[in-house]
Amino acid sequence: VWTSLPVLNFCDSSFDDSLYFQCFVAHVLSRRDSSSNVYELNFACTDELEDGHIVDSVVDHVSLTSIQVLSILAECVIGKLPQLSLCQSLTTLKLAHISTETTTFDFVSLENLYLLDCRFECGVEELLDPFRGCVNLKHLYLHRCQYYGGIHRFQIFVPQLTHLSISWMGMNEMFDSDCVVELFTPKLQYFR
């Protein structure tokens, strides 16, 4: 029965050692019935992971399914985040405490994006427009996110966006940066 469950919740709080937790997650994902779809997957690891291998494995697994809701709470580097764009059914993505060199989100089906305490390595780009590829995005929540690099202009170009919440966003660890935030959100109804 467990090999075909539509909702998977992985939480390390039941494990004494994060290595056992990672082995458990890998075991469950490798033994899933490939003909059954995952509707929602929640991954929460409160221990700092030495590398993001297990999180990248989760991304590998769900990018080929028809998942709609994905939540990842893990203090680690995620290298395969762009691979999620292959998943055309993903409507809600929640990321917390992750680090990545990914600077754009190209998720056509995404409607809800929640980023909490995430770190993005942006290189020398002066203009950053990370959500332009999310053409159906309606809700965007950015809380305590850090963008590192030579960014002078941060654009949010999302024509379908109705709800936007930004708090404690920083550029190069400065919350009072000289970076200009530009919004193109003609359907915006809520801004905080």
How would you describe what is shown here?
The structure is a single chain. This protein is mainly β and 192 residues long. Helix content is 12%, strand content 34%. The strands form two sheets. Strands 1, 2, 3, 4, 5, 6, 8, 9, 11, 12 and 14 form an eleven-stranded parallel beta sheet that branches. A three-stranded parallel beta sheet has the order 7-10-13, with no helix packed on it. Helix 1 (18-30) packs parallel to helix 2. The model has no long low-confidence stretch (mean pLDDT 89).
Detail the topology: elements first, then pairings.
Elements: E1 7-11, H1 18-30, E2 40-45, H2 53-63, E3 69-77, E4 92-100, E5 112-116, E6 119-121, E7 127-128, E8 139-143, E9 146-148, E10 153-157, E11 163-167, E12 170-171, E13 180-184, E14 190-191
Parallel strand pairs: 1-2, 2-3, 3-4, 4-5, 4-6, 5-8, 6-9, 7-10, 8-11, 9-12, 10-13, 11-14
Helix pairs in contact: 1-2
What structural class should be given to the helix and strand makeup? mainly beta
Instruction: Give the helix tally.
Output: 2
Helix and strand sequence: EHEHEEEEEEEEEEEE
What's the count of strands?
14
> How many strands, which pairing sense, and closed or not: the largest β-sheet?
11 strands, parallel
Strand content: 25-35%
Rg value: 17 Å
Mean model confidence by pLDDT: 89
For the record, give the distance between the C-alpha atoms at the N and C termini, rounded to a whole number.
44 Å
Shape assignment: globular
Helix content: 10-25%
Which blocks of ≥5 consecutive residues have pLDDT under 50? Answer: none
